[in-house]
Amino acid sequence: MSAKIISGVETAKAIREELKVEVTELKDKHGIVPGLVTILVGEDPASQSYVTAKNKTAHALGIYSEQKTLPADTTEADLLALVDQYNNDPKINGILVQLPLPKHINEAKVLYAINPDKDVDGFHPVNVGKMVLGEQCFLPCTPHGILELLSRSGVQTSGAEVVVLGRSNIVGKPIANLMLQKRAAGNATITLCHTRTKNTEEHTKRADIIIAAVGVPKLVTADMVKDGVVIIDVGVNRIGMSESGKAILAGDVDFEAVKEKASYITPVPGGVGPMTITMLMKNTVQAAKQAAGLV
Known about the structure:
This protein is α/β, with parallel strands linked by helices. The protein has 2 domains: 30-117, Rossmann fold; 141-272, Rossmann fold (3-Layer(aba) Sandwich), CATH 3.40.50. It has helices spanning 8-30, 45-61, 76-87, 107-113, 125-133, 141-152, 172-180, 200-204, 255-258, 273-291; strands at 4-5, 35-41, 64-70, 94-97, 161-165, 189-193, 209-212, 230-233, 237-241, 247-250, 264-265. Strand 9 and strand 10 form a beta hairpin. Helix 2 (45-61) crosses helix 10 (273-291). The radius of gyration is 19 Å and the shape is globular. The termini are far apart.
C-alpha cells in the first residue's frame, strides 16, 4: 500500500480561487477592499522571502497590501508606534509583524499591541482565548490550514485517535485544542507528546492521525506507525544543499518509508507550507467583513 498524497499546493489553490471570488464580491457589492500590512524589522533572508510571498499572494487575490520594512536597529517604541498607526488605519484590516524580531524588541509586547480585530495571525491572547472557548476568532494560520487539509481530503476525524508531536504555541497547542472541539475536522481524542513524553512510540503506534511539528528531520519512522495512519507533516528542515545550490528539505517524518504504511500523507515541501499564507489571506478577508459588520 502506498499513501494518497494530500497536496497543500492544490488545496491552497482551490481556497485562493474561492477567496478571489469573495474579494471581488466584497468590492462590487459593498465597495470593500480587504487590506493587509506586513511589517518586517531587519534583513533576515527567510523573513524577507516570507513577507514577499505574502504580499504577492495578497495582490493576486485583489487584497490591498502594504509592506513596511524597517532597519534592524529600529527601537521597540518606534515599532509599537507603527503598529498603533495601523491599528487606526481604516484601509488596513490585518496587521502581521513578521517573526522573529531583533533581540532588543519584546515580541510579546509587540504582538499584544496589535488590535485583536486586526490580528490575522491569531496570536493575540484575546484570539487565543476565544479559540480555546470555541468562539468566533482568527485561527492561527498553520493549524487552520491543517484543518482544511484534513476536511477537504475527506479524512474522518470524529472519534479518531490523534497524536500531536510538539507543543509550540504556533502549531502543537492550537491544533490539539482545535481538533478536540465540536467542529469540522474535530471531535477527536487527542494525545499531545513533547520532549518529556515517555515512550512516544506507544502513543504513535495507536494513532489514527499523527501531526508532527517538532523540527527534527525524519523523526517519525515506519516502525512508529500503524498501517493506514494519516500523516500531517508540519516540519520543514534543511538537511543539505543540492549541486545547484538549492536547499534540500525534509519533514519530521521519514516520508519514503512511512508512505508505504500510511493511507494519507503530506509531502515536504508542498504539504502544510502552502496552506499557511492562504489561511492568512482568509483571515484578512474575514477581518474586512467583520469591520464592515457583514458577519
